[in-house]
Amino acid sequence: MILAPNVTMSISEEDFQKFREFFYRKTGIRFEDTKRYFVDKRLIDRMQATGFADFRSYFNFMRFQANGEEMQQLINIMTVNETYFFREEHQLKCLALSILPEVVKKKPAGSLIRIWSIPSSSGEEPYSIAIYLLEYCPLVQEWDIEIIGSDIDTGMLQKAKEGIYSPRSVQHIPPSLLKKYFRKLSEDRYQISEELRRCIEFTRVNLNDSTDTKQYRNFDVIFCRNLLIYFDDLSRRQAADVFYDALLPGGYILLGHSESMSRISPLFKVCKFPEAIVYKKPEGMTP
Question: What is the pTM of this model?
Answer without folding.
Answer: 0.87
